[in-house]
Amino acid sequence: MMGKALSSDFLKIRGKGLWFLVFLGPIGLVAMQALNFGLRYDYMTQTYAGQLWETLLQNILLFVPLALFLGITLVSSQLANVEHSSNAWKQLLALPVSRSIVFSSKFTLCVILLTVSCLLLAIGTTVLGLSLKFNTDIPIGDIVRLCFMPLLASFPALALMLWLSLTIKNQAIPVSFGIVAAITSLFTINLSEYLPINWPIFAYLGPNQELFAGAGLALGAAIMLIGLLHFNGKDVG
Amino acid sequence: MNEWVIETKGLSKRYKGRYAVSNLNLKIARGDIYGFLGPNGAGKTTTIRMLLGLIKPSNGSVHIFGKALNKDKLSILRRIGSLVEYPSYYGHLSAVDNLEAIRRILDVPTARIAEVLDIVGLAKEARRPVKGFSLGMKQRLGIASALLGNPELLMLDEPTNGLDPSGILEIRELIKQMPKQHGITVLISSHLLSEVELTAGTVGIIRQGELVFQDTIENLHQQAKGSISLSVSEPELAMTLLKEHGINAIMNDSSILLEQTNNETIARMVKRLVERDHSIYRVEEKRKSLEDLFLQIVGEGKRA
Predict the structure, then answer these.
(1) Which residues in chain B are closer than 8 Å to A94, comparing Cβ atoms?
(2) Tens digit of each residue's pLDDT (9 = 90 or more) over B136-185
(3) Which domain holds residue B195?
(4) How far does A15 lie from chain B, in Å, by closest CA?
(5) Count of domains in chain B?
(6) Quick check: A96 and B77 CB within 8 A?
(7) What is the residue-wise DSSP string for B208-239?
(8) Is there a domain that residue B236 lies in?
(9) Judged by CB atoms within 8 Å, which residues 88-107 of B form the interface with A?
(10) Residue A93, min C-alpha distance to chain B (Å)
(11) Deepest of A31, A153, A212, B46, by most Cβ within 10 A of its Cβ?
(12) Domain boundary residue among B188, B204, B222?
């Protein structure tokens, strides 16, 4: 059943700009670093000689949480808006498919889209490093961790944003909230590591990276469950 | 045991202390076309949403195909096609893709899409994005989606809204065929009696959330039968005379009203009156149209 709902959702996002967003995020991040390194190539390669890959990853990392939060906000809102803007909830939920499946299918779709984004970021980072003639000793492990650990740690945001987007018809509310949260995340790094908004960056940086990713998954699952229960009991107006 | 396709018992929905629907006992027989009538805001859409499990009733129960909706929701919904209020459509997709999105969930053969588009007469426009459709075409697409899963029960909420007269006629013919050709039971809501008069076998009339009439359309016609009004020179004397002959009549101003309208009674009455030298000025039949009756039923209980 899940597969059917998911394939239906894939069809519905056609031409809604979601795939564009998926590509825009990673390409934007990589392009920024291409400029950063390209414009001051000599300075960068001299100053950071011997640790070029690390420097590149550090520079990208600064923007990964921001990009993730923005991506999550826009993807979940756009996805929900497919149903909101067409008054399709009453039609969709009168079909023989449980609301849990509908909700989980949207969640899965978000995860798939964001995973594709993160995968593109990994590929883009590697390609950028190679074309800047960094050594061929590619830190694959680090690149993969950079691209996917923050994603896992941002599951609470994903669950929350999807829940808000799916249940509030006026998408201005979840989108504003998400953008404010994304920008705030740039300035909260010195605050407590218990703040979930910091988890994506700590899931790559800190000691106990796995703990942050794991906590993200767990809290994300909890929020999704609450959202699911609320969505299940909601009247469709 | 369960001959009813839809049976609700004491179905109620309360919004912030006000009942949008209260104590509704609907009974809809298999193969029937049930016209669900009421003015705007009477609770028709709320009821249909409850029947589809879109909103939860505050009280009461819904049984469809003899099964409780809150227990067997998905297996019941599999056998229902619905169109609730204004049509739902994904504007950026073509008609075919809109149906495909639903088909993937219903899991019917792809060929069914062409079939339903053909039934509603949209086959030619199938590839155009739906946002460019006229309201009537969107409404037809909605009906096509409702038919997609080969339903046994169709719930159409104001399906002819926004259609032009020829579109209304087409949809009406389409709905009429459903029980005959496919054995489908149809629940169709409308705020116009004339709309369902020609298609429905049974009508339920809802007013301010309460079901005020539920019977066959023939019985509604019976109620709408006219009365005979008689104006004579001396109405009081005439009344006494009629009473002596066992004819029930009521005085209304200076005329006499007869509920019975069969020919013999009228003939007998006129004869008696003429024998006693009453001057008969007029014998009129006062017909109530169905629309009048509907308005009367709907209007009762409303503050003047």
Answers:
(1) 52-54, 77, 80, 82, 84
(2) 888 889 989 999 999 999 999 988 877 888 888 888 888 888 888 878 89
(3) 4-222
(4) 7
(5) 2
(6) yes
(7) TTEEEEEEEHHHHHHHT--EEEEEES-HHHHH
(8) yes
(9) 88-93, 97, 100-102, 104-107
(10) 7
(11) A153
(12) B222
